[in-house]
Amino acid sequence: MKYFARLREQLGPQELRPFVPGQSLGQLRDALIAQGGAHAQALDRSQFLRCALNQQMAEESALLADGDEVAFFPPVTGG
Predict the structure, then answer these.
(1) What is the domain count for the chain?
(2) Per-residue model confidence as pLDDT tens digits over 24-50
(3) Cα–Cα distances in Å, from 12 out to 36, 62, 66?
(4) CATH code for position 16
């Protein structure tokens, strides 16, 4: 997983984390939030976040497959 903008500041640039193939991006986000701590604060549902799956914008309903790259970022990310 990769994080951008303020999420990078809170969680670091990336992390390797196993997920369940067939799980949706939204379910992955909820699992990360359930961990508590920095993940719960950074990915909280009160904040609108964008998702990308394999470098393509994706909805939270998109399903994950083994080896996928996931990214989370705020809606406005500077270069």
Answers:
(1) 1
(2) 999 999 999 999 999 999 999 999 999
(3) 16, 24, 22
(4) 3.10.20.30
